[in-house]
Amino acid sequence: MSSFVLSGCNRSLSATAGAEELRELAHGPPIDFLHINAVQAICSVLIDFGIDPNRLFEQDGISTLFLDGTEVISFASLGRLTALGAHCSQCPHFGLLVGQRTTLASLGLLGVLMRNSETIGDALRALEAHHGLMNRGAVVGVSIDSTLAIVSYSLYQPDAEGVALHCERALAAMTNVLRAFCGADWAPDEVLLPRSQPPDTTPYRDFFHAHIRFEEEIAALVFPARLLKHPIEGANPVARKVVERRIQQLEAVIPADVTDELRRRLRATMTQKPLSAQQVARMMAIHRRTLSRRLKSEGTSFRLVANETRLGIAKQLLADTTLSLAQISATLEFSEPAAFTHAFRRWTGTTPSAWRKENQAQEKS
Fold it and tell me: Containing domain of residue 115, as a range?
């Protein structure tokens, strides 16, 4: 099984992919997928700990799909596998170690596009725009707040497992990508992690070389906005255009899923400024009634997806941080903690405090 998983290639993301490969891709991966390089990194870390990956695959019931020669894994499976890896290795920074294995080259065609972007800002915006080609289950955001740039990573699949581990993996990976452009000594000003502070923070300080803020509402790298204008040495504009066209071809044949697109857009802004149905429809260049009709055909509605997104964030912050109910309530734009508790009880049948206590008990067992 180990050799099977580690044999994944990147044919469907290669610049030479042909028409037959595009037709194969049109059958579509699961909506919540990541490319298998994430599993390859986990295998590498497990082997370093002397743990046989096969054992974890069996425990997880992990399954892979072949997408035109490229293996992909569902977000749910990767979350369980990462959590199992952290448990078996007894390593609280397991996600960090996995993320450190990511390089610009491991991003496949997207990495080639970023490498040939004109500036670092262009490269990060390419990652933001095309991240779904590699990873359908999380969203990358690039924003500017005065003199600071904020690159965030958020999971939007409902009931995703191992969210805190996913987040630190992603931030470590993005740090490696930025160091590929800026030099091995580059460091962000701050790293924000939506997880409780582990007993030993040394591994985080040693890797990021930055101030680490735990117990945050979002996962993000913060650095001077002026870096976004920094040119990328050796960028090839001809290669950029060729790769961009190939990426657009690949994205064009991935089956549309309005619910997935809505989840992605809502999650990207939920902890900043929640979007209305009218705003989302405008962003998607469709009429509000068209959005409602398409969501209805997929068995859901704007309100259901919005509530599902808020619940997912609430559960993650309750499970992975020690933020108070008042802080979580404010993050999710509830008028007061009582309103949050009422909504949470309506969604789950229990209170946030009771849910947190039960989840902590399950984690310990």
Answer: 2-229
